[in-house]
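Worked problem 6 (solution included).
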Amino acid sequence: MKGIFVSILARLKKLGVDYADIRHERIMTESMQALDGEVEGFSTDTSAGVGVRILYRGAWGFAATNIVTEESAMKAAKEALAMARAFSAVNTGKARLSVSEPFVESYSTPYEIDPFSVASDKKISLIAGVTGAALREKGISSAEAFLEFSRAEKEFCNTDGAFISQTILTSGGGYHVIAGDNDDAQVRSYPDGHHGLFATRGYELIEELDFMGSLPRVTAEARSLLYARECPSGVRDIIIDGPQLALQIHESCGHPAELDRALGAELGFAGGSFLTPDKLGTFRYGSPIVNIYADPNEPGGAGSYRFDDEGVRAQRVDLVRDGVFTGYLTSRESALAVGGVSNGSMRGEGWGGLPLIRMSNVCITPGQGTLDDLVSDTKDGILMSVNRSWSIDDRRLNFQFGAEIAWEIKNGKVKEAFRNPVYYGSTPGFWASCDAVCGRSEWRLWGLNSCAKGEPMQVAHVGHGACPARFRSVKVGVGKP
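Solution. The predicted structure is:
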């Protein structure tokens, strides 16, 4: 398609556009679900199309088509140009783009086992087997499991001269079990809550997760929660495990560091941001040991890629350095508002999604020691594991997070389990209370497949590198599922 797209871009330049890019994608997906030992669903899909984005006299236009021909792509280009022309007549502000090198490259995410080459029966047997086995465990009333795989083949070219092809392979899955009686129901998930664990890897990820091997622990913990005390209310030191800290990073750092939110240009789903441009480089976000960065180059990250959907090379950006807010996720346009150039954070969902500023892999830098070391160093606290619920205000300041399970820590030892634990806080105060982050041996990338943004809504895969961390004097209590 390169020749066709280059020809269309040349015609658009003759029509006076400031800038144009074309994104062609072909996306294959496979998903399957099992409930209580039975297959609940299985689907495969292939989608292909072309999206054209045009900047004309400082105004944007975008159109897309699922008919991948020169005629249809040119029709979409003309529709995008007509939109941009209409907006240019009424827009008071004029969009400009920061400089970006026009790369000509190809890239594919590495993997060991192509999940699309693995027999469907084998994958279905895995999730049906683990849910069926869970039901045979005492006290388990229901179990659900799923697997999802996708391959996105992308071509990008623009009027600057870039031509980039990428293939992004993603695999993921998980399961949860419910223990119930007449009075209560408790859930435990593996390897993470809600939507499992995703990575830009192959089927080897699923094999490494070892669903069946984890099942005895997961079911035992779910069953024990039926008889556990509710989490005591008060102010306590807490240790948050990796998957829970991943969501804390996502909601209280990743979203507010999206520059379009900080500028008030995007308010959908996650609201605005308290990290306004006047705070850049000076605002005390957390304690001096808190370092948070975004990096699409993290191997295997769910949010990993080589180039974003503006053709900008993926790069690391420090969002928080030594506790100070130091960086945003930016686009070619928005970066000019803070005197910089894009750090490659623009992605659209498929060929029909207008690119938006998105998280890639937003990670905390590991510190020192193991979880056992951190527990041993905690005299009186609570260890919380795996997210169950969350709520945060529309500036990403005040929040409440609930975990699936918690354990009391007394004199450096893990004691009894608690059910329905929640913790509360305000983002800067919470991160200021962080006095310990575990080391590299406890750090891993957690991956989500369901980060929503924009209207119409777009969904993106994002990753979060996290490890257990301790926070002092945090308000805790009981949350009802």
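Discussion: The chain is about 20% helix and 40% strand.
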